[in-house]
Amino acid sequence: MRGRARFGREAGLETRITRLLGIEHPVVQAGMAGGPTTPRLVAAVSEAGGLGTLGAAYMTPAAIRSAVEGIRALTRKPFAVNLFVPEPFDPSLYDPQEIGASLARYREELGVEAPGELSYVQSFEDQLAVVLEERVPVFSFTFGVPEGPHLDALREAGIVTAGTATTVREALAVEAAGVDAVTAQGAEAGGHRGTFLGPYEGGLVGTMALVPQVADAVEIPVLAAGGIMDGRGLAAALALGADGAQMGTAFLACPESGAQEGYKRVLLSATEEETTVTRAFSGKAARGLKNRFTEEMEGAEVAAYPVQNAHTRDIRAAAAKADRTEFMSLWSGQAPRLARPVPAAEVVERTVAVASKLVSNRNPERGSGA
After folding, report:
1. CA-based Rg of the chain, rounded to a whole angstrom?
2. Domains and CATH numbers, the chain
3. Which residues contact 152 (CB under 8 A, 6 or more apart)?
4. Which residues pair with 184 in a beta bridge?
5. pLDDT at residue 8, as a whole number
6. How far apart are CA 250 and CA 338, in angstroms?
7. Cis bond leading into 306, ω under 30°?
8. What is the pTM of this model?
């Protein structure tokens, strides 16, 4: 088993991912774009021995630089920046007035005017330039694989890279590109699906089924993602052949999280039956908590990402300001019952303590260095 952990009183759970990333524990906080991953959250996870990640996909280059400086003011330990790999799209295929008409009732209810000219994407080139200039320790990405020159520049800068895959075929593509590690994103994961080879429906493979297949198919370290909320999930991921776990929803309710208070409130009262995969907010499939917006937009024609995302941005912002969670994108994995409003360090420490106990109890080679 490639991901077998080595248990030690000082090192915690040592795996290939802890050695690659230079961290103490095989716990990575997911790069949740849109506000939850504040410098405080990222630094708290890293200080606790995991890897904090800044979800920077929607941030301007200046904002990314400022956030990186904020993280470094709080920790000297490794951290990551996560970006979306740009996908080809043609905005001329969509009629802005038609899209606006389908959303008009929500703007009217929230008391906001329809936006004027919209900007659909941030410049990936400019965002990545900040990552390189700041020599961020780890760069993770989703929605595809960066072009060869980008990966070459990251390697030359000594930056560790990690890509997202929702199928074995995608994991092999990530490995073939020379990426250092791959995150196997199971169907249970909250937030956007990382599928980039084929329709997203083909990438809705459960974490328990996906991780061992990816672990058997690639030689690079594997992170398991999707529904992992505590030490039981981490221990299970290691047993399946992963080298660590990526956790997102588990950190959303933490005090260091930038998620809106209404978002946290709804998350902490949600059940496993309340999540859905929707394209309504961004045009790209994403798992979140059901609300009025997802239910009323179900079956409606929506533009592809990033066009739909741009057209709903003002609605989501106004809803957040007014604490109208029925119109907010409430991304969540399938185990919201396990979310706790505790400090991020406590999430990491409890996760590792429970996983360490489970691994040590079940591993007959404990203490042998295996």
Report:
1. 20
2. 6-86+121-256+343-362 (3.20.20.70), 95-120+270-335 (no CATH)
3. none
4. 165, 224
5. 38
6. 7
7. yes
8. 0.93
